[in-house]
Amino acid sequence: MEKTKLTPIRFPADLLNELDKYVTEGNRSKFIIDATRKELHRTKQRKAIQKASGIFNQKDYPELNTSEDISRWVRNLREESEARRRELFE
Q: What CA–CA distance (Å, rounded) separates 35 from 22?
């Protein structure tokens, strides 16, 4: 079983009343824990994206300038992959 710790948290009364309307009795803690985990995951992802922004220099990758360029690049990758597969396995 996961170790837990009791902590007091203040909720606005209207939010707590609304929560109780939609979450069945005895499931409030689980609901809040699950919601917190999901939001924490999104926060971590957002921070990782912000940290990584700027590491990609578009001028270094002209094959990715437009959607047509990207489609052509993907198509070429697939064709090369298929050619290699045929070469190896046929």
A: 14
How far is the CA of 34 from the CAs of 28, 38, 46, 64, in angstroms? 10, 6, 18, 38
Tokens standing for residue 30: 């689980």
Global pTM exceeds 0.70: no
CA end-to-end span of the chain, whole Å?
53
Q: Classify residue 49 by its DSSP letter.
A: H
Report the chain's mean pLDDT, rounded to a whole number: 93
> What's the token pair of residue 24?
């069945």
| pLDDT digit string, tens, across residues 45-56 | 999 999 988 887
Residue 2: closest CA among 31, 42, 27, 33: 33
